[in-house]
Write a structure and sequence with these properties.
With 334 residues, this protein is mostly beta strands. Helix content is 1%, strand content 46%. The longest helix has 5 residues. It comes from Candidatus Segetimicrobium genomatis.
Length: 334
């Protein structure tokens, strides 16, 4: 589904985009992370049902390609072993980098749809969400479902694994982010013995080591997006709600980890996206409830937060298990 809104106006549904085999004959549509390339106005979605990366033209809201169809793990019935998973596009290289299972990261040509590199990192389950450092030409990708979970550094130049950090006490890893102003990666750690409510790790890509840890309270973070002024929007997950916490989205300063704002109108999120076009964060809050607590009625939404004031704007009703969001700067929300 796509939505749009001019600044100051309410959001409204534009259309439902038709994709082959969706809904499938059996079960639900299986998909994972999405990504928007603003220059080409293309929306990319990791489509497990079709075993491909779907490409949507956001100017016409139509499916224009399915990249590397049949070359991923597909929908195995278990997210931990399915693929494609995370997706990220590097336009200058004409490539999409895609996480897959088991422990596989694939570089896909955007024009031909062919896989031009397939890199294994030793994981037994899926390689999931990822971020890109254009200065050092590094991809960081999280293997959240392995025990213990770990992140891998991959050179986009040599297309080889060049580093790894293992999280021996972590209960999972989720969406990473990169800040081009200070050259640091940031990695969501769902929980650990040291920080049961989760944390965001600050990682130096040059040394490939954690240089700071920012503990979070009752969050168990999933989504992470860089906004203005070194701010990170942290999407606290449905796991935290299940544990008795109130739904929340936390804005932190990535220089020292201090909390800038706590938004309680939306939470239970997976992917989080920042749109510079309207200076807003968008949260794929599939586990949001009517009262923000675990005894509330399920009310999945896309949350909208003003990145200038760090205040909640609205919640857009979405659908069951709608856990992926990416936004074109012309204000089309996918």
């Amino acid at each position: 589904m796509t939505f749009t809104a001019a600044l100051g106006q309410s959001y409204h549904k534009l259309t439902t985009i038709s994709v082959p085999n969706v809904p499938p004959k059996k079960g639900a549509f299986s998909y994972d992370i999405s990504w928007v390339d603003p220059a080409s106005h293309r929306y990319y979605l990791a489509d497990r049902t079709n075993n491909a990366v779907d490409v949507i033209d956001t100017t016409t809201n139509t499916l224009v390609a399915q990249l590397a169809r049949g070359k991923f793990a597909g929908n195995t019935g278990k997210p931990d072993t399915s693929g494609p998973d995370g997706v990220l596009v590097i336009p200058g290289d004409n490539l999409a980098w895609v996480g897959d299972s088991p422990g596989s990261i694939k570089a896909v040509n955007l024009k031909s749809g062919a896989i031009v590199a397939s890199i294994t990192n030793g994981g037994k389950n899926r390689a999931d969400e990822l971020a890109y450092d254009p200065k050092d030409h590094l991809i960081v990708i999280a293997n959240n479902a392995d025990d213990p979970p770990f992140i891998t550094f991959i050179s986009t130049t040599s297309r080889k694994v060049v580093g790894k950090i293992t999280y021996t006490s972590a209960g999972g890893l989720e969406q990473p982010a990169y800040d081009p102003e200070n050259g640091m990666f940031y990695q969501n750690v769902v929980s650990s013995k040291e920080n049961p409510g989760g944390a965001v790790d600050k990682i130096d890509p040059k040394t490939m080591k954690v240089v700071a840890t920012y503990p979070l309270t009752e969050c168990k973070p999933a989504g992470l997006a860089l906004g203005p002024q070194h701010h990170l929007a942290v999407g606290c997950s449905g796991d935290a709600i299940d544990d008795g916490a109130h739904a929340q989205t936390i804005i932190i300063d990535d220089t020292d980890g201090h909390v800038v704002a706590t938004i309680t109108e939306v939470g239970g999120s997976d992917e989080v996206w920042y749109n510079p076009g309207d200076n807003r964060y968008y949260t794929a809050s599939r586990s949001m409830t009517s009262n923000g607590m675990k005894d509330g009625k399920p009310t999945p939404v896309v949350g909208v937060i003003d990145a200038g004031t760090n205040k909640w704007i609205t919640n857009i009703p979405s659908g069951k298990n709608a856990h992926s969001v990416a936004v074109d700067p012309v204000s089309v929300v996918g």
